[in-house]
């Protein structure tokens, strides 16, 4: 995202374009309108695609559209200048196209923060090992020894979709050191982790730094931390389900009726809703609110990181058509505002709404307005919540920072053994509202 790589690639791309054209005004000046027009057309198509699908609630950097336009222009120069050009100029023109495309990709990555480093990009592209990754045989051997490791372990799991029939990829489970400390394992609390619109279950680990955060938290609490399950809400990288049931798959049923029972039965985590939470970024933030408010019998706390007011796949009409097959009633069943108002008074439910510093009150349809609206409605119906603004922008580094900052609050809300409840940022301890910690989760059967 930073450093010499983006600048160097973009500088070489500009140099390649200049060499491909050369100083031949008599040849290229008559063609400039066509070259510029096709470049602008490429940028306009990309802009329409982003806006039409509702891919982002924040505007993209102008340099992204510039590089897309230059990619279109480079392709046009390659075709128009091929005949009659020297062999070396043809090679440079051919090289300019992928260089401009890579420059656009680097600008896009700088916007969303999907690959913070070269290492994370290489790990994703090569399916390299994840932080703390282990296998079931090693985990079973450690669990039987009754000694807690210094760090947690990450397992890839295949969760049956018997209830939802949702076609999904392999998912991941993080087991903290405390899980290994006794046999059978303690009934620890669990947090469901959901990524953004374009996602894989490993994104929270590679791009969001979640394993480093949870390991450090566990180390500061004698190995105690919630179990994390990194779920697949899309089934494929570009399938935007918004965690609802509809033509794109029964994603909601998968998360509530496949994932939750699997974690309880296979890893012995607590089945009490007071010990289950949801953390989500961007689209996942919307999912976190939706899942908790729709299923207070399964979840009791959420962290919504820059989510929308409701499931979003374009305009309201487009969202209803794309996600719900045109059914307004189905849309209302997954609209958090409608769900909260219809449910009425909640008990023991709390939420952390995180917005980045670029969100302003002038943006009446953005994440800040959505967070304030949902939190106000939630408070009116018994949901203890706060809107927390932090420096940053709408990208994965911001999501990772919010997870680190909200984890002590969330772990306390879920009665994690050895973790004391803490108030929302800025709240006075005597005025803060939180659930009494009570006895540790693994000692409270039937709670």
Can you describe this structure?
This protein has 447 residues and is an alpha/beta fold. The chain folds into 2 domains: 4-112, no CATH class; 119-425, 3-Layer(aba) Sandwich (Rossmann fold), CATH 3.40.50.1820. Helices cover 46% and strands 11% of the residues. It is built from 16 helices and 10 strands. The strands form 2 sheets. The chain has an 8-stranded mixed β-sheet, sandwiched between helices. Strands 5-6 form a two-stranded antiparallel sheet. Helix 15 links the parallel strand 9 (350-356) and strand 10. Helix 4 (62-81) runs antiparallel to helix 5 and helix 14 packs parallel to helix 15 (367-380). The radius of gyration is 24 Å and the shape is globular. It is found in: Secreted. InterPro entries: AB_hydrolase_fold, Esterase-like, Mycobacterial_A85_antigen. Residues 437-447 have a biased composition (Pro residues). Pfam families: Esterase.
Describe this protein with a few key phrases.
8-stranded mixed sheet; 11% strand; alpha/beta; globular; disordered C terminus; 447 residues; two-stranded antiparallel sheet; membrane; Rossmann fold; 2 domains
Question: Which helices and strands occur, and which strands form pairs?
Answer:
Layout: H1 4-21, H2 25-28, H3 32-52, H4 62-81, H5 87-112, H6 118-125, H7 136-145, E1 153-157, E2 171-175, E3 190-194, H8 203-206, H9 210-219, E4 227-230, E5 245-246, E6 249-250, H10 251-267, E7 276-281, H11 283-294, E8 301-305, H12 316-324, H13 328-333, H14 336-343, E9 350-356, H15 367-380, E10 384-390, H16 396-413
Parallel strand pairs: 3-4, 3-7, 7-8, 8-9, 9-10
Antiparallel strand pairs: 1-2, 2-4, 5-6
